Amino acid sequence: MRFDPPLRLxxxxxxxxxxxxxxxxxxxQEPDIDLTALFCSDVSVRPFHNEGxxxxxxxxxxxxxxxxxxxxxxxxxxxxxxGWRPLTHGLGRILREGRFEALWVHSYARLTxxxxxxxxxxxxxxxxxxxxxxxxxAERSAARRGAKRMAMAGLDRLVAAxxxxxxxxxxxxxxxxxxxxxIFPMPYAVDNARFRHAAAEARPRRATLLADLGIPxxxxxxxxxxxxxxxxxxxxxxxxxxxxxxxIDPERCPFLVVVGDGPLRAQLERAAAGLDTVRFAGFRNxxxxxxxxxxxxxxVLPSRREPWGLVVNEAMNAGCAILASDRVGAAxxxxxxxxxxxxxxxxxxxxxxxxxxxxxxxxxxxxxxxxESLSLIEGWSFEEDVSGLRAALAAxxxx
Length: 399
What we know:
Layout: E1 7-13, H1 21-28, E2 33-39, E3 48-50, E4 55-57, E5 68-71, E6 74-75, E7 87-88, H2 91-97, E8 102-106, H3 111-122, E9 126-130, H4 142-156, E10 161-164, H5 167-175, E11 183-185, H6 192-202, H7 206-212, E12 221-225, H8 234-245, E13 255-259, H9 265-271, E14 278-282, H10 289-294, E15 298-301, H11 310-317, E16 321-325, H12 331-334, E17 341-344, H13 349-360, H14 363-377, H15 382-396
Parallel strand pairs: 1-2, 1-8, 2-5, 8-9, 9-10, 10-11, 12-13, 12-15, 13-14, 15-16, 16-17
Antiparallel strand pairs: 3-4, 6-7
């Protein structure tokens, strides 16, 4: 379906996000969707302190190019992001003056977003919600599950359509009484073309990158990339690496590269003491990551809580096999057990060690899994996002 005249769509999100900017540029290319992004904070477009990485950083990819945007007016500071900050105002006027027909909201658990949904509902503007919730990303008590059901029932009065980032997310909505006809697939994706191109360009420099880390070019490599915080469970991976590699000839042992920084780095480095095949590469920005993926045969994400894990998408575009815990939201959709990787029970160090042993035991099969990753990720792209968004808009906007 084409919209004539172009459909005016507002997208509300806390701040410019490095993963989302390419998708916004892609949607802005649609001639019949007139997109405007509404940001509460500008914290990410300049150097800022990231608590998860434990450092000041600045993204090295463009966040505000290729689409229309505006920053909402705020009371007080704009550089703090939480469930209730920044304190924005004037959203009703902006929606009215922009003559928006639909409001796409990223996450409901923010004061501004809830207020926006209420205003949009009152003005007859269709509300589309994209959220990361799933049954596998967090464990809840019976009381909290009951409270969540009540909250979802209230939220459902405001939302016209739900944009599912993956199958676990869609299952969550259905489990809370949302009709399947109101759930539209809009999968969490990355800029596949950029990551593939960058990985291909970096691959000839593999030996140099590994040499800088003190790794022989003829050794297999596993890489993990994450903030070094508790729920990412990099400690599980290091412990599993120790269990597995102590049975291997040191001259043939693969190397593990830990990409990332955070408050647990010193603790993890102590845990890896004596492991000659573990390297810490520190924080690496968006343009550097493809080189690490291209240098590895296997990508590992051992998180004990992970709503999605877009690093899995990134690594698949470099042709990595994937080893993920069953608490990674991306796993049900992107990791086909025994095809392009393995899934193991989160928190089980022994199961993780066994999975590492199984994967590295057959280098040819591991390479085949990497090729399967490349094939599978082709169908998980921005094109599917645009299709899902279009379907949701066509089903909810009344002209």
